[in-house]
Amino acid sequence: SVGGPKSTTLKEDDLIIIQPNVDRFKTAPQISVALREEYGLNVSVTTNSRRLRKVGLYGRRP
Predict the structure, then answer these.
(1) CB-side neighbour CA atoms (13 Å) of 28
(2) Which of 3, 22, 28, 46 is 20 to 30 A from residue 34's alpha carbon, by CA?
(3) Is there a contact between 46 and 11 (Cβ–Cβ < 8 Å)?
């Protein structure tokens, strides 16, 4: 990838990507909080959004 090193590992990316399967209405900020509380991961909201968009999950109004 262009730029600096990735801020998350592939395993951490997987944890981000499965969050919408647990609750499809979770927002990127809510995913950040959940990852911090459950796994102790400090992942930014922007990183969450990018990882989700990369696998085809885009934010929409319910």
Answers:
(1) 15
(2) 3
(3) no
